[in-house]
Amino acid sequence: MKMRSLGGLTVSEIGFGCMGLDFSYGHRISHVEGVTLIRAAADRGVTLFDTAEIYGPFSNEEMVGAALRPIRDQVVIATKFGFDVDPETRRPRGISSRPEKIREVVERSLKRLGVETIDLLYQHRVDPKVPIEDVAGVVQDLIKEGKARHFGLSEPGVNTLRRAHAVQPVSAVQNEYSLWWRAPETNGILAACDELGIGFVPYSPLGKGFLTGAISAETKLEKTDFRATIPRFQPEARAKNLAFVDLLKQVGEARGATPAQVALAWLLAQRPYVVPIPGTTKLHRLEENLGAAVLQLTPEDTLAITAALSSLNAEGDRYNAASMAMTGVEAPPRL
Question: Is the pTM of this model over 0.85?
Answer without folding.
Answer: yes
